[in-house]
Amino acid sequence: MNEAVQSVMEKRIRRAMAAVQRNQMQAFYCERADQVPAFVKEMLPAGCSVSHGGSATLSECGVTDLLAQGDYRYLDRSKANGPEEIGKLYREVFSADWYLTSSNAVTEDGKLYNVDGNSNRVAAIAFGPAHVLVIVGCNKIVRDLDEAMARVQTIAAPANTVRLNCDTPCAESGRCQNCHSPARICCNALITAFQRDPDRVKVLFVGEPLGF
Ligand code: SF4
Question: Taking the complete model, does pTM exceed 0.90, yes or no?
Answer without folding.
Answer: yes
